[in-house]
Amino acid sequence: MFEGSFVAIVTPFKNGKIDAPALRGLVEFHIENGTNGIVPCGTTGESATLNHAEHEEVIRIAVETCKGRIPVLAGTGSNATHEAIELTQRAQKIGADGALLITPYYNKPTQEGLFLHFSAVAKETDLPIMLYNVPGRTSINMVPSTVARLSAIKNIVGIKEASGSLVQVSEIIQSCGPDFEVISGEDALTWPILAIGGKGAISVTANLVPDKCARLYQAALSGDVETAKTLHYELLKLNDIMFIETNPIPVKTALGLMGRIENEFRAPLCAPSEEHLAQLKAVLKAYALI
User: Fold this and answer.
1) Domain of residue 90, residue span
2) CA distance 176 to 145
3) 21-66 residue pLDDT tens
4) Residue 17 a catalytic site member
5) Does residue 232 form part of some domain?
6) pLDDT over threshold 90, residue 1
7) Annotation marks residue 132 as catalytic
8) Which DSSP letter does residue 203 get?
9) Which class for 1: exposed (0-12), middle (13-18), buried (19 or more C-beta within 10 A)?
């Protein structure tokens, strides 16, 4: 359902507002270059600083631009269960194909709290739900046993795993069975996760090189280990520089340098330091992106 190379798409801004033409252009760019799905309103899309109307606008633009050609997996997570339910229901009405829900952040729920949170959201929507575990952002790790419990719920279909632990990913794949879609949430680990049974990736780097990210997935799917390994190492420095500062600062700066979006962030995010900007430019030039 949500297998392949998905992009955690940025939210372009212009003069403090969502830049709808730029967002439509990005979606078309991805469709033309083999991306398998669009993920709006995730961390990379600066969801934490979008109000509800903007959140709906971004998802609607993605849905209307994709026109069913590739799926839209809308970020609808929150650290408040009632808000996650509301955002998910709104995404369903707009026409999203599924919802990506991050583990609640800051309030640090227990494993039982995580189970109750996702169970409550799943009960209130018909959308397929993809869980999202990223302890580095949320300060809470959803352990494999909790994921296994949630996988028994009909419309919880997979997880974006960004714990950084291949052991944890392996345990989830083993305990949840072959129909549960475990996908990479860390670009540097996409190939290793695919190699142990992952079904795809939600990528930051795909914002810049969607064709290469799609080729990596296709190579892994077809069993072409050499091509997958070659692409893994080819993308290594680009993956690394995307996190030289807080995501999405580097990727939005890169897209600005490439002329695809305005170089604008939503506060409290800001432009990178001059030192990091120079390093980013050097890597982009090495990849012939600028």
Assistant:
1) 4-223
2) 9
3) 999 999 999 999 999 999 999 999 999 999 999 999 999 999 999 9
4) no
5) no
6) no
7) yes
8) E
9) middle
